[in-house]
## 1
Amino acid sequence: MIENVEVAKYVSQFFLNINGELNESIMTVEKGTSPAEYKAYKRGVGYIMYEVFDKILEPLYLRHPVLKPPEWENSKTSPDT
């Protein structure tokens, strides 16, 4: 994964911001669509969020644990799990 800590910090913040935007979009879609549309949208966004975590953030935080948000401490990126 990314060795340069400054670049890693940028990537972490970038994808955490995107994650927040995706969460916000789910709430907006829920309010303005049918249950079936909402379910399909939420599933698609959930897939994207999982892929970002699995392929980008998890390896990044394993390499740079200091960048991992404190609220993620119990996630599988903890070195002792």
## 2
Amino acid sequence: MDDGDPRDEIVRLEARIEQLAGVIESCRKIIAVSRAAIVVGAILLVAIMTGLLKLDPTMMIAAIAAVIGGIVLLGSNSRTSDDAVAALQTAEAHRTELIGAIDLQLVSDKERRLTARGGLDRLH
């Protein structure tokens, strides 16, 4: 890491954390859809095999495609989500470390009251 301002690195990490949170949320939605596709496809296959639905080759292919496609989407997005969660945790830990390294100064009660009433410019 370079010796630049840690605040810049914190800002960059916060943007990365937001991006990763978006990726994780997107993966969760796709995982939910893929699970639904697996369930619907499986229900259709069972209904066709038990005779509840007329044997239709198109319906059978669609059901099989839904199950296989759902499994592929589930696996792919689960892995992407796991990777994003790991990267998110790393970024958050690094951000916390940088924040801890910054020399923060406490603001006195008098300065807080002045800030609330219009700013620190009254001190000068």
